[in-house]
Write a structure and sequence with these properties.
The complex is a heterodimer of chains A (755) and B (151). Chain A is an alpha+beta fold. Chain A has 19 helices and 28 strands. In chain A, the strands form 8 sheets. Chain A has a 7-stranded mixed β-sheet with strand order 11-12-9-19-16-17-18, with helices on both faces. Chain A has a 5-stranded mixed β-sheet with strand order 14-22-21-20-15, with helices on both faces. Chain B folds into 2 domains: 76 residues, Ubiquitin-like (UB roll); 64 residues, DNA polymerase, domain 1, CATH 1.10.150.120. Classes of the chains: A alpha+beta (755), B alpha+beta (151). At the A-B interface, α6, α7 and α17 of A face α1, α2, α3, α4 and α5 of B.
């Protein structure tokens, strides 16, 4: 996607003259007309021109492969570039996510974009500024040291009338400057030789610049992936098997003959789709097409008990042992008190509000694909493999999808669109229906977590033994749905589901933390395949580690915050957020649970913390439990948040709101229902999410660290939310909940059984 | 196929379509009005909301033939970036979105609400929008935006 359209000369030729028309209006079309038209170049990290271009009017186009997912990242990156270049923010145009126009900076995942791509773009901007000063020095005939820049205009210090603008210096022309670039993707170091500004001089970074993308999102003028249309485009829908891994034994094409506008039933191996002139015809045809499917080739756990048995008893394929300190068994043996508990976490959905959508135009020797991928280059490479094309002949262009929270790292739908487009020889737009998305999107993996601890006679924790058993991400980086249906096979068990937020922030003399991922990879597609879901694995692991710490504090009759502070060691930033959240929430020091109160409504408060890849978060939850119904109401969530240097305070707050609300929803409501045949949660009724009447108040304390690099805010604050809520429910009721979601049924039955 | 006459955002439009087509696809694909979005096709999420004869309705679940000659307003009918409706202006001022995919539903339902209740309380706003889903968690900002637009 781009905020404003920029084309590089030569591209249109290479794309076969395909022109896409978008309904840019207002300020956008004005900017289109002014945008630079640069010669075609293969983007190279060592060429400054691959990173940015200056137009004659002084506007600056930044080329990046990092994509907007609804977090405001393009605004934040534009702030960084504007500050470094000394140009007004409004002059920055972001051109993002086009494999033909950007250097591969890695995927937009893991809340790491500000942290990694921020410095890359800042250094490219610093190199550009240095070069512009050099050009200005020659033009104004003074040494560069005597120059200053303001709003994209270079002038001589003390003689402001002697000036030249960036546009006059290089507008519409190439820098032709080589810069250093070492490493790949998000680890790439760009132009380290360029001297960047002292952060103290920042004027735009650190301010709440309004987001570039929002106004047209409120008027219908924004072009989401769902709104992309290309000339000659047809509509496709997929026909998935009703059960896992089955094959289309017979396709009864006459069963859709009555539907006007059907172009073709597309079958390749086990992939089935229909293409039609109109969207409605494609939808009706996909529903009506009578396919006889073979019996399933594989069996899934048929219910939760079978899943739990599998999680408990299966030998792992990926073992992570991030902490191994002292001798846990020996310490447990000599402890005066030992504790153990098991925590459970279900399959959960990303739940994109708009289902997957892509448009593909596949020709005999090349393909152009518009899609919402979080990883344009990875998507390009997978499409090249699927289609048997050279990577350079596949162009992937990002357009923003609905918020996806990791789901579009494995972006399945462009493969569907590509197979259908190739079959009919025309561009095809494919949008998944709601049951396709709920049923077949990869899921956040379930967890079974066992924790043990030992306490000595003085009440000190001397042993911590934490074991997380879950599934790897079978599909995040592996072979996707349609690829598997046509016979491509995954080569490995999947990507590890992580091992942090497991109590490693606490300094215990004897401490063991392990995470084991079990085999969950099959050759064919299964509806319970897995991938990274917002701060992957960590909300679940934190639910167990911060829940268990709370159990220890309660057993030892210590205030939960005081108890945590005892073991936080030198982690000053984490201490600071914990104390800040306590203060903001007016936390009163006392052990949990709260004194027993009469009446049907029980109130409680709970706390949880995380050090999430350097971002520190503390969350205090205030809840109310309705004893007769078991309904948990989260009244208020207080968050103290330290993500290093804050680029856009309002943007960070917006992200925290989102993390909290999604976290409350996943804690109170969300669990994917399944049976041996597949997923049963196929709509929003069977997979409810939090709605307006249950949204808590949210209080936020931001701690800014201007001296640090910026860290992302898209994920850290969801991590402690489930634990804080469950701890608050314990505080209210005196009953520990070790499994989410905390539905009224579960709460009621657990309150009754008292354990 | 049949010719269907529609009144959309104050203009008369005629489309040649299968009369059973849900209004949503006609608005989006035939009339190129991208405001209403496909979310579920089941009347569960609100992404496709339009205002039909003054009521907020789910356009994914109304056949276009049932909307014939009735007054349809889409998000585009409220305003534009250049000339925003006061609700749209308030949403911009509150930065009340993340991905923004649900915003059509939020704003169109808010419009229907304030047309019948010009000064809704927070409780009324929450109740009125309870059936409009947002996955990014922009709810509190949406409430503030509607309040800002109605003071």
């Amino acid at each position: 996607m781009k905020t404003r359209q920029v084309s590089r000369r030569g591209f249109l030729k290479s794309a076969g003259g395909l022109v896409v028309s978008f309904s840019f209006s207002g300020p956008m079309s004005r900017l289109v007309a002014q945008s630079p038209d640069l010669p075609a170049v293969e983007p190279e990290a060592t060429s400054l021109d691959s990173w940015l271009a200056v137009a004659q009017n002084g506007s600056v186009t930044v080329f990046t492969s990092k994509v907007e997912l609804g977090t405001g990242i393009e605004t934040a990156l534009a702030q960084i570039v504007a500050d470094e270049l000394d140009v007004p923010f409004q002059k920055i145009q972001m051109d993002w996510g086009d494999t033909a126009k950007s250097v591969d900076q890695g995927m937009t995942v893991a809340s790491r974009t500000l942290e990694r791509a921020g410095p890359q773009l800042r250094q490219a901007a610093a190199a550009a500024r240095q070069q512009l000063l050099k050009l200005a020095a020659a033009r104004l005939e003074v040494p560069a040291e005597q120059l200053t820049v303001r709003d994209g205009v270079v002038s001589i210090i003390g003689s402001p009338a002697k000036k030249v603008s960036y546009g006059e210096l290089i507008g519409g022309k190439r820098f032709n400057l080589k810069i250093t670039a070492t490493g790949e993707g998000w680890d790439m170091k760009v132009a380290p030789e360029a001297r960047a500004k002292d952060p103290k001089e920042y004027k735009i970074v650190g301010t709440s610049v309004p987001r570039i993308d929002l106004p047209p999102k409120f008027t219908g003028e924004y072009t989401y992936i769902q709104d992309v249309r290309v000339p000659g485009m047809l509509h496709g829908r997929v026909v998935r098997p009703p059960v896992v891994n089955s094959k289309p034994a017979r396709i009864d094409e006459p069963s859709i003959r009555h539907i006007p506008g059907v172009i073709k039933v597309v079958q390749q191996e086990n992939f089935v789709g229909v293409v039609a002139e109109t969207e409605w015809a494609a939808i009706q045809a996909a529903r009506a097409l009578n396919v006889t499917w073979s019996a399933p080739a594989e069996k899934l756990p048929a219910n939760k008990n079978e899943l739990e048995a599998y999680l408990r008893n299966t030998k792992s394929v990926i073992d992570m042992n991030p902490v191994k300190k002292g001798n846990v068994e020996e310490a447990l043996a000599r402890a005066s008190r030992t504790f153990q508990a098991t925590y459970r976490w279900p399959f959960q959905l990303h739940g994109m509000l708009g289902p997957s959508c892509a448009v593909a135009d596949v020709r005999s020797d090349r393909a152009t694909v518009w899609t919402g991928t979080q990883a344009p280059f990875m998507t390009r490479d997978k499409l090249a493999t699927l289609l048997g094309l050279a990577k350079k002949n596949v162009r992937v262009i990002h357009r923003e999808a609905a918020g996806c929270y990791g789901r579009l790292e494995p972006d399945d739908v462009p493969e569907d669109a590509a197979l259908m487009s190739r079959a009919v020889g025309r561009p095809v737009r494919v949008q998944w229906m709601r049951d396709d998305e709920h049923g077949w999107s990869p899921k956040g993996p379930p967890h079974l977590i066992s924790v043990r601890a030992g306490v000595d006679s003085q009440g000190n924790v001397i042993a911590w033994d934490y074991l997380d058993r879950s599934f790897p991400w079978t599909d995040a980086r592996g072979v996707l749905l349609a690829s598997r249906q046509v016979g491509l096979k995954p080569a490995d068990p999947g990507f590890p589901n992580g091992a942090t937020s497991a109590g490693e922030v606490y300094q215990f003399a004897n401490q063991k933390i392990a995470a084991q991922n079990l085999p969950w990879q099959t050759a064919g597609p299964i509806p319970l395949r897995t991938c990274n879901l917002r701060s992957p694995g960590q909300p679940a692991r934190c639910f167990a580690s911060e829940g268990f710490i709370d159990e220890l504090a309660s057993a030892l009759s210590v205030d939960p915050i005081q108890f945590r502070l005892r073991y936080l060691g030198e982690n000053k930033r984490l201490r600071e957020v914990l104390l800040a959240a306590a203060q903001k929430a007016a936390w009163k020091e006392r052990p949990s649970p709260a004194p027993v109160s009469a009446g049907p409504k029980l109130a409680g408060r709970g706390v949880a913390i995380t050090d999430r890849a350097g971002a520190m978060v503390a969350v205090v939850a205030d809840v109310e439990v309705d004893k007769p119904t078991g309904k948990v109401s989260v009244k208020r969530i207080t968050v103290a948040h330290d993500c290093g240097r804050i680029v856009n305070p309002d943007g960070v707050k917006n992200q925290i709101d989102g993390n909290v609300i999604q976290g409350v929803s996943r804690t109170l409501l969300e669990e994917v229902q399944f049976d041996a045949a597949g997923v049963k949660s196929l709509d929003w009724k069977s997979y409810p999410i939090l709605t307006f009447q249950n949204i808590p108040a949210i209080e936020i304390v931001l701690i800014n660290r201007p001296e640090m690099e910026a860290l992302g805010a898209g994920e850290p604050s969801i991590v402690p939310v489930p634990a804080a809520i469950a701890n608050a429910v314990f505080d209210a009721t005196g009953v520990r909940f070790r499994e989410v979601p905390l539905t009224p049924e579960r709460v009621l039955s657990t309150l009754k059984s008292g354990s | 196929m049949a010719r269907v006459s529609l009144k959309v955002n104050g203009r008369s439009r005629v489309v040649d379509t299968d009369p059973s087509t849900p209004l949503l696809y006609v608005l989006r694909d035939d009339l190129r009005l991208n405001g209403p979005k496909f979310g579920c096709g089941l009347s569960q999420c609100g992404c496709c909301t339009v205002i039909l004869d003054g009521n907020a309705v789910r356009s994914c679940s109304i056949a276009v033939s049932n909307a014939e000659n009735r007054s349809i307003t889409t998000l585009e009918g409220l305003g534009s970036v250049a000339h925003p409706h006061r609700l749209q202006k308030a949403f911009i001022e509150e930065q009340a979105a993340q991905c923004g995919y649900c915003m059509n539903g939020m704003i169109m339902n808010a419009k229907a609400l304030i047309d019948r209740n010009p000064h809704p309380t927070e409780v009324e706003i929450r109740r009125s929008l309870d059936g409009i889903l947002c996955r990014c968690g922009s709810h509190l900002r949406v409430i503030r935006a509607i309040q800002r637009a109605t003071v």
